[in-house]
């Protein structure tokens, strides 16, 4: 209705009165800090290494990089690809498939910086994406993981299941291979 028609001004005024609180609420919503989304579920990275699919806990990572130059180092460990620089630090890079005992092929494109010290990066072939799963879609293994040396759970997806790599166990395995004590540094 138009204000020129009889009763049009009343309708426009009532509509403006109804819209004013909605407009104010909308405007105020931009002034408030973002609210947590509630139960955010399990955040994982779906990856492939050595032709096999895996998942990594996002919380166990400190960075994700692609096509980062790795300087090769000679040595007796086939899993050690070399070193790369991350945020000004020189970090050893290991091929995840080799650490897990799987065949490797080609040069891995992706590097994940593992959270914790000493600094450590793992190379893998492909990033399939970020997964945000409901908590019930991830089964965590118990303390007795002798049959799952480098895995700490399974992520159930429609049509497939991914083993969740225990990055702390991978770090411990690498330190054992290199004769380091867990969390210590050579001087």
SSE topology:
Layout (H helix, E strand, L loop, with lengths): L7 H22 L12 E8 L2 E6 L3 E6 L13 E7 L2 E7 H4 L10 E5 L5 E5 L1 E8 L4 E3 L10 E7 L2 E6 L1 H11 L10
Parallel strand pairs: 2-11, 5-7
Antiparallel strand pairs: 1-2, 1-8, 3-6, 4-5, 6-7, 9-10, 10-11
Structure description:
- With about 190 residues, the chain is an alpha+beta fold.
- It folds into 2 domains: about 1-35, no CATH class; about 40-175, CheA-289, Domain 4 (OB fold (Dihydrolipoamide Acetyltransferase, E2P)), CATH 2.40.50.
- The chain has 3 helices and 11 strands.
- The chain has helices spanning about 10-30, 95-100, 165-175, and strands at about 40-50, 50-55, 60-65, 80-85, 90-95, 110-115, 120-125, 125-135, 140, 150-155, 160-165.
- The chain has a 6-stranded mixed sheet with strand order 8-1-2-11-10-9. Strands 3-6-7-5-4 form a 5-stranded mixed sheet.
- The termini are far apart.
- Residues about 180-185 have low confidence and may be disordered.
- This is CheW-like domain-containing protein.
């Amino acid at each position: 209705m138009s204000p020129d028609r009889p009763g049009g001004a009343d309708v426009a005024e009532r509509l403006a009165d109804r819209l004013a609180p909605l407009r104010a609420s909308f405007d105020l919503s931009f002034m408030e800090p973002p609210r947590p989304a509630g139960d955010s579920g399990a955040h994982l990275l779906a990856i492939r290494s050595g032709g096999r699919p895996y998942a990594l806990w996002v919380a166990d990572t400190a960075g994700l990089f692609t096509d980062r130059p790795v300087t090769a180092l000679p040595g007796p460990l086939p899993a050690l690809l070399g070193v790369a620089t991350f945020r000004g630090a020189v970090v050893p890079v290991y091929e995840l498939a080799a650490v897990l005992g799987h065949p490797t092929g080609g040069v891995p494109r992706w590097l994940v910086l593992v959270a914790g010290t000493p600094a450590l990066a793992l190379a893998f072939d492909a990033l399939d994406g970020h997964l945000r799963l409901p908590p019930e879609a991830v089964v965590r293994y118990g303390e007795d993981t002798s049959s799952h040396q480098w895995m700490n759970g399974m992520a159930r997806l429609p049509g497939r299941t991914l083993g969740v790599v225990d990055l702390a166990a991978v770090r411990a395995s690498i330190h054992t291979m290199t004769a380091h004590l867990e969390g210590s540094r050579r001087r």
